[in-house]
Amino acid sequence: MHVHERNPKRTLITIILFALVIVFGWITMKKPLFKYALTPQQTVDMVISHEGCFHPYELVKAIDDKSGEVVLIDIRNSFDYAKGHIPNSMNITASNLLEKKNIDQLDNWKKNNVRVVFYHDDQLQANGTWMLFRQIGYSNTFVLLGGYSNYVLHKDNLQEAKGKTCLKGTPRYDFAEVAKKSGAAVMDEGAKPKKKIKVRRKKKEKAASGGC
Amino acid sequence: MNKNYLFLTLLMLLLAVGTFFITKEEGYKNEIKPEALLREITQPSRYVTTDQVAKMIIEKDPTLELIDVRSADEYNKFQLPDAVNVPLKDILTEEGQDNLGIEDMNAVFYSNDDILADQAWVISKRLGYNNIYVLKGGLNCWIETIIRPVEPSETTSQTEFEQYKFRKAAGMYFTGASEITDSNGNGTKKPKVKVRRKKKEKAASGGC
Questions:
Q1: How far is B93 from B109, CA to CA, in rounded Å?
Q2: What is the gyration radius of the CA atoms in chain A, in angstroms?
Q3: B48, exposed or middle or buried, with CB in 10 Å at 0-12, 13-18, 19+?
Q4: Which residues pair with B106 in a beta bridge?
Q5: Which of helix, strand or coil describes residue B41?
Q6: Is B111 on the interface with A (CB under 8 A)?
Q7: Distance from C-alpha of B51 to C-alpha of B41, rounded to nearest angstrom
Q8: Which of B66, B107, B110, B202 could form a Cys-Cys staple with B83, CB 3.0–4.6 A?
């Protein structure tokens, strides 16, 4: 007697079990909470275009703004925030920004086209956070040029300092000139205008090796 | 019964074909998750000071790789010794990527100040590169601390004087000044650069 004849529903049961396993796997599959909305290339383009910059002179409006078109977020720790912050700003430390309640808040702002401006002591320290949020799809986020330290320096004349307060990124010296000046006899290290760069190709398949 | 087998076979084949469509994950294989990227971003460990870099250059540290993310024009006018030019806009090109993932190298990004370099860092970090750093303060700070160090006032601590001495010597190393005039007015010929071994926790001191 053949095995199948004992239980004619055998095939059906197998199929159902199989389907169950797949459905179960599908449901329990870990879905990433955050996904990149920008590809690396789009990120590069975004950064180069300077579209996410919030100029200090725009703060004048934002500080008095009660309509909620602009939200200033101090991403320093609460201690620094307590010592002093830009008026009308709120404090969410950078490492807590991805918490559920803060993300809900950010989603809400995004829906209502509210501009969200991150700032830290220095523009540098807010740069990464701002870039991250741009990359995960919050196109309403901005970074305060110059950061809090620049704001403190210019807080009484933000409007007048319009052109001057955006100093980041520009050379303050003519590097070639300065570097040359102090040296009469130039050592060979510094003088060679252009060294031939040897590029070692990295090994392509390194990542996969040694896996399980 | 034969029909059952046929059915099962077809089902399996169908599912097998289906797998072709799910594994197509576009992009870079080492890309890290946004959460992990934020964790990395909030760490200040990626910043290196001009003193640290100057010391590495003088010591001819073979693991140091300087990456100039400014435009080719700016790079051609002035660059740090042995720096490679990868303008930020070209960082994702094959050439740019080749310069990043070199094994056992510590890549240090620098620009006029540190914003452009930091942006290059964030993008590279997302792509999963390790051992990448940002020169804090960039070339502006390089000029202010290494090429034109400011003499500390007399009341400052010994370590700051040590640091000043190192910077002064390093500055001459980089500019090729032939003689140094110390406070007594004595000229000395081409001093040997003494690299002061830095105490570990001092790393952040005196930056811009």
A1: 16
A2: 28
A3: buried
A4: B64
A5: helix
A6: yes
A7: 23
A8: B66
β-pair partners for A72 = A89, A117
- What is the token pair recorded at A82? 């307590």
Cβ distance of B92 and A41 shorter than 8 Å: yes
Beta bridge partners of B48: B135
Q: Among partner residues B8, B172, B178, which is closest to A11 by beta-carbon distance? A: B8
Domains of chain B (ranges; CATH) run 34-183 (3.40.250.10)
Question: In DSSP terms, which residues pair with B181 in a beta bridge?
Answer: B187
User: From start to end of B114-170, where are the E strands?
Assistant: 132-135
CA gyration radius, chain B: 25
User: How many contacts does A have with B, using Cβ atoms within 8 A?
Assistant: 164
Q: What is the distance between the alpha carbons of residues A50 and A130, in angstroms, rounded to a whole number?
A: 12
pLDDT digits (tens, 9 = 90+) for A135-176: 998 989 999 888 888 888 887 777 766 655 455 667 777 777
**Spatial separation of the C-alpha atoms in residues B55 and B197, rounded to whole Å:** 9
Count CB-CB contacts under 10 A for residue B199.
Answer: 9
- Pairing relation of β-strands B187-189 and B179-181? antiparallel
Q: Is the ipTM of this complex over 0.90?
A: no
A52-61, B101-110, B185-194, B197-206: segment of lowest average pLDDT: B185-194
Give the residues across from B154 on adjacent strands. Answer: none
Q: Give pLDDT tens digits for B85-105.
A: 988 888 888 888 888 877 788
A47–B103 CB contact, under 8 Å: no
pLDDT for the residue B25: 57
- As a whole number of angstroms, the longest Cα–Cα distance in chain A is 103
DSSP class of residue B145 equals I
How close is the nearest chain B Cα to the Cα of A17, in Å? 13
